Amino acid sequence: MKSEINRLLHEKNLDAIVISGSGSHNAPLKYFTKDAFFTHAQIVIIRDQDPVLFYRPMERDNAERTGFKKICYDSFPQKDFYTISKGNSNLANALELQSMFRSLGFIKGRAAFCGQLEFGTHLAMLQEFQRLMPEIEIAGSEGIEILNQARFTKDESELAAIRKMGEIVVKIAGRVEQYIQSNYLKNGILVDQNELPVTIGMIKKSINMWLTELGAENPNGTIFSMGRDAGVPHNEGNDDAVIEAGKSIVFDFFPCETGGGYFYDFTRTWCIGYASQEIEKAYEQVRFVDDAVLKDICPGKSLKELQHLTCRLFREMGHQTIEDHPGTQEGYVHSVSHGLGLNVHERPFSGISASDADVILPGTVFTVEPGLYYPEIENPFGVRIEDTIYIDNDGNAQYFVQYPYHLVIPVKQLEK
Question: Where is the Peptidase M24 domain (predicted)?
Fold first, then answer.
């Protein structure tokens, strides 16, 4: 949480963090500015001091609402910076950063930089800045590591934001089901009231409309994939594909608050009208593993242990797993869990990138998402189930919201 940042600065021997960029879809800055609108702003966190917000004059009202100590960029001689730099914007921005640091009394020490920025331009600016202030050591990833560690656990306001997104997600999932059931099956194809085929793209357009109505967005898109496409975990689905009866549909839905706030991640697998025995068996196995993983969650356990459990259970069922067959494209092919917050994927992790520090603690938020994938068999399919959970103050795993688990969505046959 934010209360940990100063301690972490001391532990990392870091004197300052500079967070830069837009206020939208920029998790490090959004963590502080919340829903305030900024085309460009910077938060400077100096060890043992309160954070300071630097902002553009046109966004002064937005800056006021943040409650931070604040300094307008117009406090510095912007015109002089461009005169001195002879139009070199990287040097002009470096001169501005030098003035910002001096205004805060920060003239020597280690500083780290992070935020959503164009890498090459920001690197060029920092190279100019290093020549201006060689007494400031530019650190590497320590700044974002500190922020990621602070974001590892969520406070009540963050949990409330994620819960609100979860409520939006399940409301839309229900609308998708209702829409599917309002149509008909004709010759194995889902058709509307006018007997026109229903496509995946039509459903995605409705999802986007409902998200806008409910105050959310999906910047990373929506996975609504069918049959062979469902057998490749992050295949988003073919918008032109007509929805067919009996094929598995993986609906993986991970929107966020408008402007890039908190996310929610959710997956259900459906078959329209009926499911084959093969898909039914895989679905029941995934449900079994999902239940087993949820029961195994407890404080102090690493998410890697949940991954080991998932692999063992699927292996005992006769499936290849990523643990036993690295790079496999059939069976169980991914990790079972990832953290979630201002990014749809953040710490704690459960896959090969996970560290021993990625442990379950009160306030952690993460997904549970086992799945099985067979994209190259005669009747290809994929099955995945996913919910986002949090650990309460007593160490218990809790759902933010719940949604039914059922494989088959019944749809009426069109009468001749």
Answer: 162-392
